[in-house]
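Appendix B. Raw example, untouched.
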Amino acid sequence: MRLTRFTDNALRCLLLLGLEPERCITVHEIAARMNMSYEHLVKIVHRLAELGYVDTVRGRHGGVRLGKPAAEIVLGALVRQTEENLALVECFDPEHNSCPISSTCRLSSTLDEALTAFLAVLDRQTLADILEPRAVGADRVTTGANGRLRLAAVVER
């Protein structure tokens, strides 16, 4: 399973916004910090706003911010809503299935079970979960001096 660039960038955009939930961040700043195409990010932010994940604020001090608490953003739901097609193989889509052995093949049921398990793991995780350090010495997403996201080791004393 490979997520589209759209979903990957949507997740990374929400991660950045989750690090600074009190702040409106411009799309230009997000694009620069995440090393993303501004034009592509505009489409992502528009879709995230339609889905209620972000709020957009116009004006001089405008930008984008989380539209709901990070603990309410379930990763599985986000992936389902941003991926155009979760069909892992042709036979998942009966309208476009031309496989001659699909009526007797058991591969599709195995792949369907794997996709279900993949999404079940994401359904147990929220944006808040992936923003929090897991344990002493765990990696945590932070922003570097240049404003870009990076993983930093969390060390408690």
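End of appendix B.
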